[in-house]
Amino acid sequence: CPACGAPNPATGLFCENCGAPLSGAAPQGPAASQQPGYDQMPGMPSGDGEDAFSPFQNAFLPAGLQLSPGETLDGIKASDWASFLGRNASYYLMNFKGMQATGRKISASFSAFFFGSFYFFYRKMWAPAAAFLAAELALAIPTFLQIMVLAEHPLASGIDPQLLGFFSVLCNGLSLVLMFLRGMFALYFYRKIGAQRIHKVLETPLEPQDRAVALVKAGGVSVLALVLSLVLVFVLYYILVSAAMWPMLQTML
């Protein structure tokens, strides 16, 4: 270990004695630890690179939320969780430990609250990502219908404006409820999905070095999924808005 000098397996990612990362230089004091204030998406401010800190030694965490590499969460060692979580592991380990200790399912995630389904795509939670995206698109239907009415689209000629306005207000309210639900339950979903994937990897007969690689591959983040989901939603909204405004666009051309 570059931090404490303890011997470790050659395939280890974190020191079994102090929890420091086994690759790269040793952390230089408390500033080398990541502040776990919130989960970060690309472009959001970050204290250090993801390999510059140990998720098990964080001067900013309360003593009750500190973990050792051998401590278990949902029957999984914290070191395996850290390999799976990758970026901002200390933030998730802190929240997961608190959730396990209290039995609660609610824990705020500002990234999930503000970025919606894109956060779930970024964290490889495919089922919640698809479900939240479908819900967001469904709640946007009254907005597209209002655009069709303003553009005097033939398909919207029989729609009652007052009834449409009521449904628009209703869907706006449901959108706020959806934002609250995904922000408060995102970490619960991530914990359950992560535990299932980690157990699946650990139950597979693999060499230690292959198991570590499999955990990293099964978890972490996917910038590609984030970019593709952004492009998909942009293209879909462009097509729908263009179709809704087509009669108006024809008069302008």
What can you see in these coordinates?
By secondary structure, the protein is an all-alpha fold. Helices cover about 55% and strands about 0% of the residues. It has helices at about 80-85, 90-100, 110-115, 115-120, 125-140, 140-150, 160-205, 210-220, 225-245, 245-250, and strands at about 70-75, 75. The chain has a two-stranded antiparallel ribbon. A hairpin with a 2-residue loop joins strand 1 and strand 2 (about 75). Helix 5 runs antiparallel to helix 7 and helix 7 runs antiparallel to helix 8 (about 210-220). The chain is elongated and about 75 Å long. The protein starts with about 70 loop residues before the first strand and ends with a helix. Mean pLDDT is about 80; it is low at about 25-35 and about 45-50.
